[in-house]
Amino acid sequence: MAKSEKIYYSIGEVAKTFQVNTSLIRFWEKEFDVLKPRKNKKGNRLFTERDMRYLHMIYNLVKEKGYTLQGAKEALKSDFDTIEKNVVLLETLQKAHDFLKGLDLILEEKLKNQKTIPFTR
Questions:
Q1: In a domain, 55, yes or no
Q2: Which of 20, 62, 105, 118 has the smallest number of CB atoms closer than 10 Å to its CB?
Q3: What pLDDT does 90 receive?
Q4: What does pLDDT average to over the chain?
Q5: Pairing verdict, β 38-39 and 9-10
Q6: What confidence tens digit (pLDDT) does each residue in 27-38 have?
Q7: What pairs with residue 41 in β-bridges?
Q8: Is residue 121 part of a domain?
Q9: Which domain holds residue 57?
């Protein structure tokens, strides 16, 4: 999950970030009391960076580590700080991975261009 200048994220943006359906986001909102998105006059959910961090923690526990919903709730209650630190570490590693992947693409392109330009003295 990348940091940005946005203050609020729509449920569609959140679902796309985590590659899940919007219905799952709504379900998690009902199940986990740490999720408290604001709602606009139309009733659309508006998620903050804080909500996104909580969602990342829930996603990590449920989707990546295979916790049950009850297990994820208990883990968040008993070991919130450790889980949050692990998610921050995962986010940092993902950013580094994305940066290196982008750098690799740039280097590949430069090498490709070097091979196509004839060498002359």
A1: yes
A2: 118
A3: 85
A4: 88
A5: unpaired
A6: 999 999 999 999
A7: none
A8: no
A9: 9-116
Q: Does this model's pTM top 0.85?
A: no
In a domain, 2, yes or no: no
Residue of 33, 45, 41 whose CA lies nearest to 80: 33
Tens digits of per-residue pLDDT, 48-83? 999 999 999 999 999 999 999 999 999 988 887 888
SS3 at position 99: helix
With cut-offs at 50, 70 and 90, classify the pLDDT of residue 3: low
Q: Domains in the chain: how many in total?
A: 1
CA angle 52, 57, 63 (to 5 degrees): 110
Element (H, E) at 52: helix 49-59
75: domain CATH number is 1.10.1660.10
Residue type, 22: T
Burial class (CB in 10 A: 0-12, 13-18, 19+), 117: exposed
**Amino acid making up residue 49:** E
